[in-house]
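Below sits the subject:

***
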Amino acid sequence: MQSPAQETSPRPECNRDAPNTPTDPIPEGAAASDATAAGDYIQQIDACLTPSTQWDFSMLCDPLASEEEQDGLYRLDDDAVSELLSVQAPTSTSDPIWDPSFTAASWNFANGSSNPLLSAESMSAGQRRPTESTQCAKRITHLVKDKRQPRYQPHTPSDSGCQELTETARNPFLDRPRDLFNLPSALSDYFFREVITLYCAWDSGSNAMRNIIENMWQSSGALYHTTQSMAAACLSEDFPHLSSIAMAEHRQALDYIQGRSQQSTKREDSLLAHMLLGHTASWLNPQNLATDMFRTSYLMLKDTASEAGDGCDLSFFSDTMDYWAMLLVYLTDSSHLGDYRQDFSTGPVRPSTNMEPHPFSGISRETIRILTEVGIIIFQYRKRMLGVRFMTEDDLDVFRSSFREARRLERRLLAHRAPDLSQITDPGDPKTPLSHLQHLDEAYRCTGLLQLYRVFPDLLNERYAPWNKDDILRAPPATKTPTTEERDIWLTKLAMHILGIIREIPFESRTRSVQPFILVALSSELRRDSHNQLSGSSPKLLSLDHHSIEVVRARKFVGSRLAAYTHILPLRKIRIIFELINCVWAALDAGDQDVYWLDVAYQKNLGTMMG
């Protein structure tokens, strides 16, 4: 299921000995051609920096890095610059980002002189006027005076055959906008401004993930390259040339961790970096579940816990592993989780020492662990039953054992009580209040019940009564044994009840990043063809027609929420999720009454990380 990442050739180091200014006078006849080249180049630069681009040009240069430090980062050769400039064709704009007076002062040629630049000091005060660029420069200068942090220096590849951007001595203006193409700084800025807020279920100054990365990324090679990879992957849909950079940074971060295994695997920066690299491997290859990285991350966590002792709170990391495991167990055998599977089954539930929501699981720590157990038993049972054509005694033993475990998990879900919000620290994210996390916890619980009742219909038979949402968690004794059709309708009602809970969470809520799993898990219950099995009276047909309309509306809601999420966090794996859901609905509409999303994902190799 997993495919190795494609190899990319290393980026050669730019020649640092290339002159920034010409050593010989520029011939008189070359001034005109230089002026023409300068004008063409500036038009291309302006076109790439028009407001239509999603890059914030003021952040592309790194104000905290010195000239030597910036030279130590990535440098683009002429081919790379041409590639960047070809992404967007030059377009005119009535409101240019660069003020004309500022452009004239910095870039115009003076009377064909051999010196193509006019000194800023040669302008009178009346010729200058404040611009966005000059104001930005003042802010950057102020920022540099306020704070300068030590920066991790990434390894620079060898300088085989690369030429400096400024090697063309006849155009000394070329090294003026060099910082505008400081790609690592742009990716770092994009990561902190966009990626974290889209990746976590909530975000604020108390987000443990944000705090660890902000405090360590400039001194940790593992975190530095991890953030570069995640940012480049998020932008690769709009900038395809960043795909290779995302994969290269992913490999470099792993090499950094593995090369320092004896010194750094017990540090929280390497631990978090490895978890993020594994969890986001599907950003680069949607079908890559990275179970090997899960096992390694768990071993690193165990080593860190044993070395730190009982006084160290590692709940953030352990809860991260629990959430990651929950997403994996529905798509792969739990034996692939290594020591985590054994410790999860035999170890006691650890009391939480942190009353603040987790960035991934929110306030649903206990619910996530129950869902993990549900996924383990369902995946193993369905995998066994898919290959059974004639029942044997061993198959019956597997069924009985699985059914007993499913009943135990049903009771845990029915007895679950959401945490008291008065006991939870509000993280202070205005887009994600605690009520959203509470709704999400309820949706998780009902999703777990939905999976159990679909895979083990006898559980639903034991408590069946005509649908009443007030009785979902009370499970009164069965009033009758339902038919297959009645059971399907009941499960469809439960699925639409879960969607009703999700509807109460506005799309602007950051919990949208963890909703895809719920949307996929209920997709196989959105049946609209049950009326085709009946030939009753007109009132029945009218009722079923209304039911089908509601199902269609529910499907559209699922599709619209996933589509909107794709535009916000454009990753290839969202297309895999769409394909999985469409395959499920196509099978349902074709009359297949035994469609289950997990079976479709397993048979068609459409499993991907859904959170």
